[in-house]
Every structure is written in C-alpha cells, then in structure tokens.
Amino acid sequence: MQEITHNIYIDHNAIGLVTGVIRTPEGSILVDPPVRMDDVRSWRGATAKMIMGDAKFLVLLDTNFDRILTSKGCDCALISQMNPPAPTKSRQSPQRPPEDAQAASDGTDATSSTPRWNNPEIWFSDTMNLHLASVSVQLEHHFGANSAGIWVHIPKEKVIFVGDTVLVDQPPFLAYANLPLWLEELDLLASRAFRGYQIISSRSGLVTQAQVQEMARKLVAIQDLLSPLVRKKTTLEEYLALIPEIMNLYQVSPLDQELYLNRLQWGLTTWFETNIK
C-alpha cells in the first residue's frame, strides 16, 4: 500500500484495480473495493494499524462489472451514483467481457460468472460531500467514460480519483462511453484547475497531465474512426473491423493482446447496440 499524501493511500487489488483509502480520525473512506473475501480480510489487517476507526464508506467509481462484482463483503455504507448498473450481457459467447478477463500480471483467481450487485445505501445525482473529522471529500458525477462515473476529489490535499476516465497505454472502455463528454472531462483534468494535483486512474495508478492529454489525443483518433460509420448508419461488422486500427494507436505487449482485443470487441458491440442499433 502506497501513501501518496498525508492519510491517503492507494493499492492494487487482485484484478488490477487501483483502490484507495482516505483515513480520518472518525474512520476511513474506501475508493473501490478489494476483489475477494480474503482480500477484504487482508485489507482490514493491513489497514488496521493505520486506520483510526472502522471504514465508514465505500465509493464505487462506476458500475463496470469488476466493481459491482467485488463490492460484496465490505462492512460499510456503499455509495454509488444514482444511474443504474449497465445491463449485464449474456455470457454464452466464448469471449468474456473485458472487465471479467485478467491480464497475465493480475491475480489468477477466476471471478464469478454472475455479478452480485449490492444495492447502495447512499445514492446521489450530481455532487455529494462527505465530511469526516477535518477531511472534506467531494463526489462528482462525470459520465464521459461511464453513465454512473464518479470522481473522488480531495481539494485540500490536491488529490483526485478519476476511475476509468484516464487510461495509459491501453485502449479505453467504450461500452458505455459518451465520447464528446469524455473529451470535455479530459480537457478539464489537463487544465490549470488540476495543476499540481495527483490524479489517480483506476487502471494506471498515478497519471500526469501530459498523460491525460495523450489520452485525449487517442480518444479523438478513435472518435474520428467511428464518426463516418455513425453517419453512414453502417453495420456492427464495420465497427469491429476498426479494432486493428485502434490497437495500432497503442504499444500493447503480447501478454495483453487478448485482454485488449476482448475489451474493444465487447465495448464496441455494447456501444453499437446502445447507441446505433
């Protein structure tokens, strides 16, 4: 577990999500959960000495499958944006959704084939403030990458958790994306408003504003590939044919090829069925 600033820690769970702990004298706020029950126990053991009091809140940064699957087993109030979880697609296809696939560097434990969604105790629409002791945490709805996306903003410490809004050297999750809004959010993160901030991506850890700008450039390139097909109202097959061009935008290791191909195929298929079909 890495302390990035006073009383704020990040860690990787067993499927590679970068999770967070915000410590206060009245308890802690967890940003995304461990993945398995034994990870919950190890988190409790690892943080018992540094957390003053029990975990009070668990914030889910969006409703991607890996987050809603792993939220079970944390004994604290679950917070989510009020938009419902995205529909879970049938698993009869031989290819698994990307959130269910694991990179070779991740843990080898299989995840369940059925998502177990715990209904959150707390919902919000646009913004919500959490106050524990002297710590003020702002929860903000940002839905470019996911309709229920949340940023966790700690202004005093200049720290912000942005979920899947920023990914470094890997293709984005397109399934529930709103590309114009996503680009606006990236412009905001790269602006003076977040100069000097520590920006935490759920897949890439700490990222720089230069990496945010690079993410925006590649998202513009993807949008430019998709736009002519949207205007032509073409078939899903033509969208899937773009996958090699999208992959060429990234330096992908052979170990990650299958993971990212699955992510793009599943993402484009879901995006097409939601927005075009």
Keywords:
alpha/beta, Metallo-beta-lactamase, Chain A, 7 helices, 29% helix, globular
Blueprint (SSEs and pairs):
Layout: E1 2-5, E2 8-12, E3 18-24, E4 27-31, H1 37-47, E5 55-59, H2 65-70, E6 77-81, E7 122-124, E8 127-132, E9 135-141, E10 150-154, E11 159-161, H3 179-189, E12 198-201, E13 205-207, H4 209-232, H5 236-240, H6 243-247, H7 257-275
Parallel strand pairs: 4-5, 5-6, 6-7, 11-12
Antiparallel strand pairs: 1-2, 2-3, 3-4, 8-9, 9-10, 10-11, 12-13
Helix pairs in contact: 3-4
Order of helices and strands: EEEEHEHEEEEEEHEEHHHH
Terminal CA distance reads 44 Å
Strand portion: 15-25%
Q: How much helical structure, as a percent, in the residues? A: 25-40%
Poorly predicted segments: 88-116
CATH architecture: 4-Layer Sandwich
Q: Considering the protein shown, what is the CATH homologous superfamily?
A: Ribonuclease Z/Hydroxyacylglutathione hydrolase-like
CATH class: Alpha Beta
- Give the integer mean of the pLDDT values: 82
- The number of distinct β-strands equals 13
Give an overview of the whole structure.
The structure is a single chain. The protein is built from seven helices and 13 strands. With 277 residues, it is an alpha/beta fold. The chain has a single domain, classed as Metallo-beta-lactamase, Chain A (4-Layer Sandwich), CATH 3.60.15.10. The model is unreliable at 88-116 (pLDDT under 50).
